[in-house]
Known about the structure:
With 475 residues, the protein is α+β, with helices and mostly antiparallel strands. It is built from 11 helices and 20 strands. The strands form 4 sheets. Strands 2-1-5-6-7-4-3 form a 7-stranded antiparallel sheet. It has a 6-stranded antiparallel sheet with strand order 10-9-8-13-12-11, sandwiched between helices. The model is unreliable at 134-158, 270-277 and 345-363 (pLDDT under 50).
Amino acid sequence: MEKPSLESLWRCFDGIVPSTLATCDLAGVPNVSWISNVKYVDSRQVALSRQFFNKTIRNLLQNPKALLIVFDPVSFVQHRFRLRFVRSETEGLLFESMAARIQVIASHTGMRGVFRLLAADVFEVLDVSTLHESMVPAPAGQAQDLLPIQTARPAEERSELWALQRLIIRMKTAPDLAALLRAVLETLAEDLGFDHGLVLIPDESGTRLVTLESRGYGESGVGAEVSFGDGLLGVVAETKKPLRVGPLGSALRYGRAARDRVLAAGDAAVLSAEIPLPGLANAQSQLALPLLVAGELVGVLAFESERQHAFEAWHEAFLSVMADQFAQELRAAMLRGEGDEEEEPRPSTNAVQVTNECSRVAPPASYAFCLYRNDDCVFVDGKYLIRGVPARILWRVLKEYEREGRTEFTNRELRLDPSLGLPPVRDNLESRLFLLRRRLELRCPELRLVARGRGQFGLELDCRLTLNERVSSAV
């Protein structure tokens, strides 16, 4: 029987079923450990994550030989690797990519700084043998949870190069930011079956991501936030490295088992609260990539699925290629028009006209807006709407309308208003206006910010407004 190559065993390296590592000391006393992360390095090497395993590393320093058992999560066939310990890495690209995956699990289980990667232990693979399928019992409850991997089109009809070409053409011909975001998420859903996707950008603080556009999440998508370093999205933003994690269920169980050990040792003070997973409640696979321009983070592109093993190694490679182009197009769309000379705004409807029209025809809706000054949050009818710079822009527009009946505005006047706190360079005003429009569409559709042309937008409303300001925090 021909021995399998490491490349052909890529499913075994996703951590769906924990691997086992056997070592022994010079006296021949064995030690067996569970391994959460086995990473493919090249055609002759793998790397194993080391979070604890003091006995294992002591054995390896005395006797570098080891046996590793990995499992195919679909067929449950197990493969045995004969290994020779080569080195431990505590920095560099390999270490950082493995550490980021551990950080995702640690952040969700409240163990940041406790459950962390100490080293990436690199081994030469001396031999690979496949064991008989009947020797491998399926973990309890695992087999029935595994669903077949699906793609949008049959594999024989799928051409990744064709899909990439179509995606790039749609990005380059998108006339504005809204069309660009829609083109990327729709095309990846059509061609790759990625039905749940997010595009997030850093907010003005540079410490949080805010969801600019989403697909598959309904009203819960746009505007959702996550702090840098929290969960998969926050770790990708913080490290600027792509991450593919699956399944989250078993990974989190491993992290919580480690958390229980810390609690049993009486070290509860070093733990923090578990962080809920963003997006799908039962996400089993996640893939996220940083969108970088000259090393600067302009956003994060993320996908998730309720299917185990939904994202394969080639998906990550494919998206890594398109992410560079998307990052460039996203930056250009967000900065589009910053240097343009805006024309004078259209004449505004005056307050008397608005009052008379409202008295003739009663509006179909009424909204109560409240600004909380201490954290720049705007709530509508008691529910959170938006925060930060977009909230300050909305409040300025609504107050102008309340005082003067004004409905026409320019980007230039916003940039010249110091109270909005826009940075002098690369203010990303277009993306903030886009986010504000989308949040209004979802929460109060009778109030709209409509583009009028280059550097201009108008306020359109079919509702009554009440505006209040408070100092104390809303949350």
